[in-house]
Design a protein that fits this description.
The complex is a heterodimer. Chain A has one domain: Orthogonal Bundle (Helix Hairpins). By secondary structure, chain A is mainly α. The N and C termini of chain A lie far apart (about 60 Å). Chain B has one domain. The longest helix of chain B has 26 residues. By secondary structure, chain B is mostly helical. The chains are: A mainly alpha, B mainly alpha. The interface between A and B is large, with 56 and 52 residues.
Chain lengths: ~110, ~90
């Protein structure tokens, strides 16, 4: 049982680090603000959930376990809000590739 | 477990360097804010990896605080961009 838990933890930690690296590569390679929002919101959130659940498995007191699960839940809730606010601000200012979108329903709605 | 922690450290260091490159290069303010958010979340993952590797709950509060600061900072600068322009 201990071996199973250790292997599971190691797999989750390596997945979390790999997802962080992939999100950073996406952040560097994509070309507009709207595109760069995606890796930072999706891939890295899954990485945080993996790291926090692995830490929650390994930590020994119940308080720390609940706190780590709370951090994972908090990240799931707040990452879309933050990315949405940055993308909406860039859209309102008119930068970040928001001028040459093929379909822009937000601009028509705000007119 | 030591090998896993070393590999995770190398991967996270590479990720933070790439985020730092986007933070320095990023043409607009929104790019820099997204890169800073990603950098802080990489820090959160690093603290989580340390906590899981050692099994000690010493830095769980720091994890919570860094996650909160990343959200509040990003939201604040987004409001700032809406009001003052994206330069």
């Amino acid at each position: 049982m201990n071996t199973v838990i250790a292997v599971l933890t190691a797999f989750m930690l390596l997945s979390a680090s790999m997802l962080a690296l992939l999100a950073a590569i996406g952040l560097l390679r994509f070309d507009t603000v709207m595109a760069r929002t995606h890796p930072v919101t999706k891939a890295i959130t899954l990485g945080v959930v993996f790291a926090c659940v692995a830490a929650a498995i390994q930590v020994d007191t119940t308080t720390d376990t609940m706190r780590l699960l709370l951090v994972a839940l908090f990240q799931i809730i707040t990452a879309p809000i933050a990315a949405h606010m940055v993308a909406r601000a860039a859209h309102r200012v008119g930068s970040g590739g928001s001028r040459d979108l093929p379909l822009d329903e937000l601009r028509e709605a705000e007119r | 477990m030591t090998i896993v922690l070393t590999v995770c450290g190398v991967l996270l260091a590479a990720a933070s360097l790439l985020c730092l490159a986007r933070l320095i290069m990023g043409p607009t303010l929104a790019d820099r804010v997204i890169a800073l958010d990603a950098l802080l979340i990489v820090v959160v993952i690093a603290i989580g990896v340390w906590t899981a590797g050692t099994g000690r709950g010493t830095y769980v509060e720091a994890l919570l605080v860094v996650a909160l600061m990343a959200f509040i900072g990003t939201t604040t600068v987004a409001r700032f961009i809406e009001r003052r322009g994206d330069t």
